[in-house]
Amino acid sequence: MNIDDVKNICVVGAGNMGHQISLHCAIKGFNTVCTDISEDQLKKAESFVDSYLPGRVKKGKMTEDEAKAARSRIRFTSDLKDAAKDSDYVIEAAIEVLALKRKVFADLDKIAPPHAILATNSSAIVSSRIADVTNRKDKVLNLHFFNPALVMKLVEVVQGPHVSDETTKISMDLCRRLDKVSVHVKKEVKGFLLNRILLRIFEEAEWMLEMDVASVEDIDKACVFGAGHPMGPFTLMDLTGLDLAYTMGLESFRETGDPAQLPKPHLVEHFVKGEFGQKTGKGWYDYTKK
Ligand code: 3HC
């Protein structure tokens, strides 16, 4: 198999990452099916597509024909079987719960054609913790996009010990066809490349907040105006989701037993109130007032 055999992509999960990954695949010429167990999430994803594409045309970033063609290449369904049965490449972008991902991959292994590559967009869970539920371990890897997936160029291609060179090459080639910049992560290290760095920044930012060294706003300002970051760590967490930060902290604690990995009190406070960031209107900042 090579990249020319990849025509149909299935994206599992229509949330923060999944809806943009699937739209990006469709824009770049792949027949794409986006699936989610939540009809509500699928409706939101579809209405995003229906406002985003005309917006690109209006902005002069896309012709009307290109937008129409992209729209015709993407569809939405809550039926995983229907979504994955003809796929050549699957990108799972469901929530960060290991047991759930293992169940999804076990199902995908039964549904997707034997040649199909099964990738996870997980932010933290390495594919070797998932691959053993399939009969195609060599075709199961991490393909990690960044938020917002339509914009951020980087994709990490993580080659765990079970992943074949062919799967890695096709995945790197796929990134090129998606007009992304891929990096080959040769070992399954925790956090891969960029999250490993970003999480250190988030952690320090949160500790400074916990110790009342400075406010959310001032810590963000320091990173933007002193280090040239496009947005500060708290604004970035609001974009990627406080639910994700919380779940990642818990998973990390389960994995290492290190209490320092547990979500910090302010983060827990937002999480229990359902304040997950931009998507709920409130997180570290209040977006309902803007
Ligand atoms: N969805 C889609 N497109 C978006 C967008 C969104 N949420 N936000 C901005 N854009 C697009 C705009 O449409 C615009 O596109 P155009 O230039 O082609 O018309 C372009 O991005 C620039 O937008 P703006 O001028 O409105 O805003 P900024 O210049 O401030 O850029 C940003 C917004 C691209 C989000 C920028 O602030 C940025 O790069 N922030 C850092 C993002 C980042 O670090 N992401 C990684 C997060 S970590 C992660 O995802 C890992 C995961 O495992 C958690």
Give a description of the structure:
The chain is an alpha/beta fold. The chain folds into 2 domains: 3-185, NAD(P)-binding Rossmann-like Domain (Rossmann fold); 196-280, N-(1-d-carboxylethyl)-l-norvaline Dehydrogenase, domain 2 (Orthogonal Bundle), CATH 1.10.1040.10. It is built from 11 helices and 8 strands. It has helices spanning 18-27, 39-58, 64-72, 80-84, 98-111, 165-177, 194-210, 216-227, 233-240, 242-256, 265-272, and strands at residues 8-12, 31-35, 74-77, 89-92, 117-120, 140-145, 154-158, 181-185. An 8-stranded mixed β-sheet has the order 3-2-1-4-5-6-7-8, with helices on both faces. Helix 2 (39-58) runs antiparallel to helix 3 (64-72) and helix 10 (242-256) crosses helix 11 (265-272). The chain is globular. The structure holds 3-hydroxybutanoyl-coenzyme A.
